[in-house]
Specification:
- The protein has about 180 residues and is an alpha/beta fold.
- The chain has 2 domains: about 110 residues, Alpha-Beta Barrel (TIM Barrel), CATH 3.20.20; about 50 residues, no CATH class.
- It has 7 helices and 5 strands.
- The chain has a 5-stranded parallel sheet with strand order 1-2-3-4-5, covered by helices on one side.
- Helix 3 packs across helix 4, helix 4 crosses helix 5 and helix 6 crosses helix 7.
- The longest helix is centred in the C-terminal third of the chain and has 32 residues.
- The protein is globular, with a radius of gyration of 17 Å.
Length: about 180
């Protein structure tokens, strides 16, 4: 159905399996094995994304499934209390799987400087969710455009200040930790 609808990718959350919330709506979900995820990946011609990867081990298993991308995400801490932040685990995950799978980062990104940091820590790209909801409710299409322009301007300024002339120039040196 996703292919017929013309979507550009499909995916699945791997860290929220078993949450009671879905069961309350008659849609219980349980954990998937690597083989079951491989089957999902092979069931479509579309790029397949696994969201909720927070360990090197899970990232390596994601590569094994044949998925095209992972999203390093703790769902804003809403799945499991006391989960580390994305920025804490991203460098180790990137070190293990960079170049083997696309690494997307999703977690607390609100500014262009946040985008720069996530890329510097190893993300290939960054996802932003909640701020776009606020922007769209507050200003519809113009609100979203204004937010995109704000993020782009902040990122451009941060890149200039860190000596990066392109996204490819952004690396760990801009966030010495």
């Amino acid at each position: 159905m996703a292919e017929d609808a013309g979507v550009f990718a499909v995916g699945v959350d791997i860290d929220a399996a078993g949450l009671i919330t879905l069961a309350l709506y008659g849609k219980p979900v349980g954990p998937k094995t690597v083989e079951e995820i491989k089957e999902l990946v092979q069931s479509t011609k579309l790029p397949f994304i696994l969201k909720g990867v927070m360990t090197v081990e899970d990232a390596m298993l994601a590569v094994e499934t044949g998925a095209n991308a992972i999203v390093v995400s703790n769902h804003g801490g809403r799945v499991l209390d006391h989960t580390p932040g994305v920025a804490e685990v991203l460098p180790e995950i990137a070190k293990a799987v960079k170049g083997k799978i696309t690494i997307l980062a999703d977690g607390g990104v609100r500014t262009g400087v946040d985008v720069l940091k996530m890329i510097a820590l190893g993300a290939d790209a960054v996802l932003i969710g909640r701020p776009f909801v606020t922007a769209s409710f507050g200003g519809a299409e113009e609100g979203v455009k204004a937010y995109i322009d704000k993020i782009a301007g902040e990122l451009k300024s941060a890149m200039i200040l860190t000596g990066c002339s392109s996204i490819k120039d952004i690396d760990e040196r801009v966030v010495r930790y």
